[in-house]
Amino acid sequence: MRELAYYEAKLEALSEIMADDRVHLMGGSFLSLSPRRTLFRKIKERYPDRVADPPISELGYCGLAIGAAMAGLRPVVDLSTGSFIYEAWPQVVNEAANAFYMSGGQTRAPVVFHILHGIRGQGAAQHSHSPQAMLWNCPGLEIVLPSSPKDVKGLLKSAVESPNPTIFVDHVQLFEIRGPVPEGDLVIPFGQAEVKRQGKDVTVIATSLEVQRSLNVAGQLAREGIEVEVADPRTVAPLDFATLLASVEKTGRVVIVDQCHKSCGIAAELAARIAEEGFDKLKAPIRRVTAPDVPIPFSPPLEEFVTPTEPRIIEAIRSVLR
Amino acid sequence: MLPKVPREKLVEFCRRMLLIRHFEESLIGLHDQGRFEGHYHVYIGQEATGVPALSCLGQKDILFTTHRNHGHLLARGADPGKLFAEILGRKDGYNQGKGGTFHVAAAELGFLHTSGIVAGIIPLAVGAAYAAKAKKRDQITVCLIGDGALEEGAAPESFNLASLWKLPVLFLCENNGKYGPGRATGAAQSATMAVYPLTDLPVAYKIPARQIDGTDAGAVHAAFSEAVAKIRRGEGPRFIETQTVRWPGGETNWPAVPVPTDVSLAWDASAVPERAREWYRSSDPVLIFIRELVEKGQATKTEIAEIDKGARQTIEQAARFALESLFPEPKEALKDVFAQR
Q: Which of B73, B95, B173, B335 could form a disulfide with B99 if both were Cys (CB 3.0 to 4.6 A apart)?
């Protein structure tokens, strides 16, 4: 199978979704402010009428995209830094998320919001957020967290086909990762977790960039004879809990890794469900590796201290194996 | 003045205004009987805005409205039985009981989404207009808001977008606070909005805007016909502020009917309690419209009484339909969170 860089797979998906003339892109930082951003220009040049540059009015243009979706388009909105979605909060969580339910199933809002979440390197408190857990607390939103070149392509294709408002949660530090991506059409349905590495000793459930860190850790520990299974939910809403639970039941030990803050984060919810439904299969307490409940600091040693890094994942794995 | 439309249409305007009035008065009765809980907002006093304004739209046009939606729905021809049923939380309601008074949506009439957040629909309406323009549809979107909506940040952000991208959207701002309680007149309209007149806000974003008397059905109809035609020609967004005097029964969150509306009040308001009498005499748009119909020889008092009787019967039947409709099964609460692919 061919190998692509993550940003190439993402760009390929962006380019392919434009074949549907209902798709309108709003904003131009799908590839962040990284050096790769210039590659997006080609799409804009090819589809000048369907790539809009809105003013710095997140509330206004996110609402605009929701209304356009209600009226038949498939807008894909780039909010760039994840924290900026807070500027559009009333439209995303109170209009888009509620529209289908509140209208008694009359009105769909098939809009995609693209955000770059997480600790990206000196982003400080206002540019390092992971809003996905807060958004998961808003029924009506689908939440997607790709972690590999194949997933970013297949999930983005799927997001545009979703009839529901979808949050596409990406991480800029994934962009240069390389991996296999099948040729041709690739659509990964929502609600299908993937076990990205098999192992019998301990399950690591991770999301987004933390999947890659967990895979690195699994490779390192394999040399010591510790077999780590890495499970990636890929979408948390809908959530394929069965696959995650099956893995936990197999290994009896689980570490959950994500970049949300610890309280009420994605790891918190997954831990609660595992405790509810898989308690009798656990051989050790559940461990979480997350950002602690502090704003993300600026200075590198401070930032490193709150990041779910590989050594912290290793430490957590060792603790549940004890 | 009367709208410049054929007589049959004037009679239909009269019928719809009375339908709205009797609907809202019945609704207040149902609330007082404990048939539904919570606060709610009625359209009494604004009938001569909604009815002629929305008559200028086509079938394919899209509308977004707010907490004060009942009159807009009825003006557009909604079934009052399904509307009552929704407000009473019954399964036969427009939204099967999932929305209630604040969120009545009727996609078949173009009402896609009704928000209880005062400015919540403004960006959505601009977005529907964006879709219409992108798809080159002969379709405009109407955004039905109150004066309070201009106090939220969504308003200026949306005005900017609508104006920049020349989108086919008509903002109807129904200002029902003219001379209202707690409102200043003169330099500023209210204690909570520095912009005065309100049209200065859209005008700052280069959206042509005008103020009209919302109790004058003819002025409303003329202004809307013109604005709708310009928007359809691709001239970009328009903003119209209609001013009405707040109905004395709606000064709090808990509407109370000072006197049930009877068409005879158009000529003799002495039956109205004194504190509310002046409004019924000089500011009630339904009574103003009826008086004009008779004075201009478009209808006799007997004909008006017949129209009124018909409207009352429709509303009585509608209320009965809603009261007989069942509540949804409790487990329906878990359905329709997500649309299926």
A: B95
Distances (CA, A) of A284 to A232, A278, B262, B317: 21, 12, 76, 65
Contact A156, A88 (CB under 8 A): no
Beta bridge partners of A261: A291
Using the CB atoms, write b or e for B87-115: b if 16+ within 10 Å: bbbbebbbbbbbbbbbbbbbbebbbbbbb
Write out residues 128-157 of B within 8 Å (CB-CB) of A.
128-132, 134-135, 141, 153-154, 157
Specify the residue for token string 């400015």: B119
The pTM assigned to this predicted structure is 0.97
- Which chain B residues touch A163 with a CB distance below 8 Å? 338-341
Report the pLDDT averaged over residues A196-219: 98
Residue A163 to residue B141, Cβ atoms within 8 A: no
pLDDT, mean of residues B11-22: 98
% of chain B exceeding 90 in pLDDT:
91
User: Hey, what domains does chain A have and what are their CATH numbers?
Assistant: 3-180 (3.40.50.970), 194-321 (3.40.50.920)
**Interval B224-245 mean pLDDT:** 97
Residues of A in contact with B120 (CB under 8 A): 63, 90-91, 94-95
Of the residues A114, A117, A127, A261, only one is catalytic, namely A127
Edge-first strand order for the sheet with A235-237 is: A51-52, A23-26, A74-81, A112-116, A166-170, A142-144, A235-237
Give the phi and the psi of residue A77 in degrees, each rounded to 5. Answer: -105, 130
Question: Phi and psi for B298 in degrees, rounded to 5?
Answer: -90, -20
- What are the backbone angles phi and psi of residue B177, rounded to the nearest 5°? -110, 15
**Over 90: is that where the pLDDT of A34 sits?**
no
Q: Which tens digits make up the pLDDT trace of B280-312?
A: 999 999 999 999 999 999 999 999 999 999 999
DSSP character string of B38-92: S-----TT-HHHHHHHHTTS-TT-EEEE-TT-HHHHHHTT--HHHHHHHHTT-TT
Indicate the CATH number of B7-323 among 3.40.930.10, 3.40.50.970, 3.30.2350.10, 3.40.50.1980: 3.40.50.970
Instruction: Say yes or no: A68 contacts chain B, CB-CB below 8 A.
Output: yes
Write out residues 109-128 of A within 8 Å (CB-CB) of B: 109-110
Report the side by side order of strands in the sheet with B169-178. B111-114, B62-65, B141-146, B169-178, B238-245, B209-213
Kindly list the residues from chain B whose CB atom is less than 8 angstroms away from the CB atom of residue A90. Answer: 117, 120, 154
Ranges of each domain in chain B: 7-323
pLDDT at B187 over 50: no
Q: Is there a contact between B105 and A71 if contact means CB atoms under 8 Å apart?
A: no
For residue B189, name the pLDDT band (cuts at 50, 70, 90). low
Tokens 């997954």 correspond to A270
User: Which tokens sit at B197?
Assistant: 């007149």
Q: What is the model's pLDDT at position A28?
A: 85
Q: Name the band, by pLDDT with cuts 50, 70 and 90, for residue B254.
A: confident
Q: Could you tell me how many CB contacts below 8 A there are between chain A and chain B? A: 160
